[in-house]
Amino acid sequence: MQNALFVGVSSQAALQRQLDVIANNMANVSTTGFKSRDTRFQEYLMPVASADSFTGSDRRVSYVIDQGTVLNLSQGAIEQTGNPLNVAIRGEAFLAVQTPQGERYTRNGALEINAQGQIVTSDGNPVLGEGGPIAINAQETGLTIGADGTVSTNFGVRGKLRLVTFANPQRLTSEGGNLYASIAAPRPAGLEARLEPGALERSNVRPVVEMTRLMDLNRTYATVSSMITRLDDLRGTAIRRLADVA
C-alpha cells in the first residue's frame, strides 16, 4: 500500500512538470521564433526482494522519473512583414547575439537598430556578424539583408549576420527572453540554412494540441489524486481495525 502511494506521488510530480512545460509553451504562442518543448519520462523499477523466505517473487514497483524536455525544432509559420530589418530563419540555425552573460543564440529575427547604430534583437542584444556586432551610420540608407545574411546599405556591404548550428541542438538550454545557451561550441550553418528577408518566423506552438494535452493532464492528475485519497482512506481503515483487534 505504501508503494502505491509513492507511485502516485511520483506520477503527480511528473504531471506537475508537464504542466509547467505546457504553460510555458502557451505563454509563448505569439513569441517570434519560439520553439516549443515537450516532456519525456522514463520508468524506474524498484529493486525487488530476493530473500528465499518469500513464497513467490515480489511484484515489480514502477515509478515515474522526469527525464527532461525535448526541444521541438520544427519550422514555424513564415509571415511576410515587408520590414527590411525582419528576417525569418529557415532550417535548424540560430542567430548569434551578444548578451551581458556572453554569447547566446536565438531564432528571433525581429531586428532593430539601437541608438549606437548597432543591429540588435527586439530585446536590445547586439546581433553578431562574422566580425562582431554590425553598425550602421545615420547617413546610410537602403538597408537590405540578403538570404545569406549579408547586410548592405548605399555605402556597400556592412557585414554578414552569423548563422550557427549545433551538432546536438537538444543540448541547448533555454535562458528566457527567447535565448539559448550552449556548452558546446557552435559551428557555421550550412547551405541548408538561410534567411528570408522581410519576414518573421512565428512560434511553432500549436495551441489546439497544447490545450488537448492540458485537458488530458488535468484528467490524469484528478485520477491519480483520487487513487491516493482512496489508498489513504484504506490505510486509515486498516489501522483502526487493527487497533480494535488489539
Automatic annotation (TrEMBL):
Domain Flagellar basal body rod protein N-terminal: 7-35
GO BP of this protein: bacterial-type flagellum-dependent swarming motility
SUPFAM superfamilies: Flagellar hook protein flgE
Stretches assigned to the Flagellar basal-body/hook protein C-terminal domain: 197-240
Domain of life, per lineage: Bacteria
Keyword set, alphabetical order: Bacterial flagellum, Cell projection, Cilium, Flagellum
Domain Flagellar hook protein FlgE/F/G-like D1 residue range list: 88-152
GO cellular component terms listed in the entry, alphabetical order: bacterial-type flagellum basal body, rod
Coiled-coil positions: none
Subcellular localization(s) per the UniProt record: Bacterial flagellum basal body
InterPro entries referenced in this protein's UniProt entry, alphabetically: Flag_bb_rod_N (IPR001444), Flagellar_FlgE/F/G (IPR020013), Flg_bb/hook_C_dom (IPR010930), FlgE/F/G-like (IPR037925), FlgF (IPR012836), LlgE_F_G-like_D1 (IPR053967)
Pfam families per the UniProt record, alphabetical: Flg_bb_rod, Flg_bbr_C, LlgE_F_G_D1
Keyword Cell inner membrane: no
Classification via NCBIfam families: FlgEFG_subfam, flgF, PRK12689.1
Family listed: Belongs to the flagella basal body rod proteins family.
PANTHER family: FLAGELLAR BASAL-BODY ROD PROTEIN FLGG, FLAGELLAR PROTEIN
Subunit record text: The basal body constitutes a major portion of the flagellar organelle and consists of five rings (E,L,P,S, and M) mounted on a central rod. The rod consists of about 26 subunits of FlgG in the distal portion, and FlgB, FlgC and FlgF are thought to build up the proximal portion of the rod with about 6 subunits each.
Protein name: Flagellar basal-body rod protein FlgF
Species this protein is from: Methylobacterium radiodurans
